[in-house]
Each structure stands twice: as C-alpha cells, then as structure tokens.
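Schema walk-through. Below, the input block comes first and the output block second. Nothing else is stored per chain. Lengths vary across the set, and this one has 491 residues.
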Amino acid sequence: MLQLFVEYGKLAQDQETAFQVLMFLVRDWPYPYQHAYGAVGGEQLLAKRLEINASHTEDMRDLRKSIYTFFNAVKGFLMPHPGFSVSEEKFDGRLFSIRDEFKKSLLDLVPSIFGPENLTPKNINGQPVKCCDLFYYFKTYMNIFNSNELPEPVTIMKATSEAALMAAEREACDMYSRVMEGSCGARQPSVSANQLRSSHAHALDCARKAFDARKKMGPQKEIDDCFARIINDLESRLASYEALNDAKFKSAIANANKAYEDTVQEVCGDAVLCLHPTDLEVLHLKAVTNGTECFDSLHNSSDDEERNAFLERLEGNIKDLRNKNEQNNLGFIMKAQEDYVMYIANSVDVGSFFSESLLNKKHSEAKQHALHSFRSHRNIDNDEPEDPYIEMLEKNIKEHHSKNTLINRNANRTAVQAAQHAYNNHVARMWSPEVYCLHPDDLCKVNQDAKNAALEDFMSNRIAGDDDDEDPDRKKLIEVRSFSPLQVITY
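--- output ---
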C-alpha cells in the first residue's frame, strides 16, 4: 500500500510534495527498553528502518527515498499493548480495564494529532481542501478501493483528477451563486434588466477566475470540456434570476403603491377623501415621497426606464385624487345646502311666513349650521381665507336666501291684503253709513275692533322676531284707515 501511494506521488507531484503527513503508528510495541513508547521512540525506530544500506534492492532504496520526497512530514509513534482484558469476550470498552501505560500513551498520541497547534488544513495538489471538497474525494476513493484488488496508481491519479475537477466545478458554481445572490438574489432589491445582465457577466467572470485558480490534474481537453459544461450551466441560470427579478420588481411596485395609498388613507381614516385643494396637493406630495422611498428600498436602480415610468404613474395619481376630492366636496356641498334648507323649514310651520328680520336671523343661523356641517367632513382643518368649495357653498346659500326673501315678502304682502280685506268686512258688518249713524266714540271702537281682528288674523300665520314692532308690514297694517273719508254725523 505504501508503494502504491509513492507511485501515485510520482504521478501527482508538481513542484510540491504530493502528501502532507505520514505517521507510522506501532501498537503493541514489545521492546520499550530499546525504544521508549511515544513519539521519541517512534522517531528513533523509524530512522533505523528507513536507513538505506547495501543489502537493499533498488526498489527498496527508491521507496525509502520517495517517502521523504512525497510527504511533508514523516513521523513514528510507539504504543504499548492495551492489556489482555481487551481481548476477552466480556470486555465492554471501559477504560479501567485498559493498561495504564496504554492510556498514558493515548494522552500523548491524541494531542499530537488533534491538538489545535498540530491541526493543519488538508492539502491536495498543493491547495487546501474544503469539507465539501473532501466529500468528493472520499466518495471517489471509496469507489476505486471498494474491491478486493489494489488499484493501479494511474487509476488513483485519474480518480483524483476527476475529484479535483468536481471540486473546481463546485467552486466556480458557488462563486457564481455568491456573486449573483449578493447583487440580485432573493434577499436583494430588484434591479434593472441591464444591471441584471451586467451582474450575470461579472458573476461568470468571477466563476472563471475561481475555476482557473484551482490546481487541476489530467488532460487539458478534459479541463476545457469541464469548464464549457460549467459555463452552459451558469448561462441557463440567468433565466431563473430574470424571473425572480421580475417578481421582485412587481412586488416593489405593489408595495410602493400601497405606501402611497396608506399615506392617503392615514389622513382619511374611515371617512372619504375631502380636503382643501392646497391640503390635497401637500398630501399627494407626501404620498409620492413615501411611495418613492418604498420603491427605492426594494429596487436598486436610480436611472432605469422602468423606475421612471413607475414614478410618472405615481405622480399621475394626483388626477384621480383631484377628481375624487372634487366629487366628494361637491357632494358635501349639496348635503350642507340640504341642511340649510331643512334648518329653515324646521323653523316655520306649513303655511306660515317670517318677518324679514327673523328670516335674516334664521338665514344666518342656518348658514353657520351648513358651513359647520360641510367643514365636519373635511379630513384636515383648514383656515385659509380662500376656499373655492366654501365660496361655492356660500354663493348657493346666498342665492337660496334671496329666493326665500322674495317668497317671504310676497307672503307678507298677500297676508297684509287679506288682513285689510278682513278689516273692511268687519267694519261693514258693524256699520253702514247709509243705514246707521253712530256716536264718534262708537265708530272709533268699531274701527279699533276691526283693526285688532285684522292684526290677529295677520299674526296668526306669521312668525315675528324680537324687533317685530319695527316691521314695515305690521306698521302698514296698523295704519290702515279704510273709513277715513267718512263724515261723522253729529246730533
């Protein structure tokens, strides 16, 4: 077996030793008085056994020379017999059954192999071997040694070459994956299509360098064919990264839109959008800023066409906001006008009318009620002197009040005429100048009674204010003198 590895070392050597450490571990050493147990005795014994003398054949001499040529270090260690109890059937592995000398030697042997200062990375072909690479080597060597025949050095060499290529291939693929995952992997923001292709090209270059940096064995054609397979495999992975990047980009757009909508919703709450135009512009600017920040945190590019197109669409949301805001403001204006009308209507019974002073007072109260109703629907209080929707509401209320004033005046005028007619009828029933003659005091009484009846009839359907005595319609009725041209007959 030693000869086999020496022959392999001859094939594998390339300006460096093929192997690292060779330890000759001798157990059950029976001559501790010649060479003591442990590393010192082992080194002494090894030096004697590897000496070259005239009695050795050429092969034996070559073997001894090659051992020191193909190994960085050659060591020896002598172990005592563990004790005869270990060979008995009832031995269960307990340490107290093992000889103290054996356990003492173990305390020297184990640290010499596994102590931190003695552990060195495994090298094959002059390069450190990673754990994942070591798996490939174990698997390869198990396959060639899994028989009753000792393999040829060439077979081991070929197997090592294949394992080295597999390790180089894995290193190149891992390098590609690390570069791509670091720039546009699942945990990274989406990027532009150009940036993705640039990252792919950079990752391929890193994979090529990683492959070239690994020392490889075997014919150059096999190495070139292996690298061609690697490139084909890595080129095919671009499609999956493109699909992943597209999904992340769509997710970035969805999240940015949600950030925009959440900003608007934060102001509106459960209510509908209703703002002063200035507040709407400020809200839109804040929503665009939040949406842009969200998008940029999920998309790693600042000048690609897709980003610019998305931001343009985000800016365009102001049109929809303005339309919604205008519709809602107009809707609440109509509701406020209805509140104004209902407030006036609830202040008077059917068929009744106001004095003009009271109508103006009720108008002022109803107007404030309507304005308060409208402002209560605003998402943000605004005290700016100019508000087109408030101005529209006030204009509509003013027009409505003008109509009410005209209607009320006509109602007052009709009521005055009716009261005057009632006055005349009352006097006519009590006195006729062609038939009766009355004492002047009685005539005055008839006039006063008729006037009071007319006033009572007039006021029965009229709602007066606190200053009703100054009302022109009432004064007009009080001053009625239908019989002023009559001559009083005296005796």
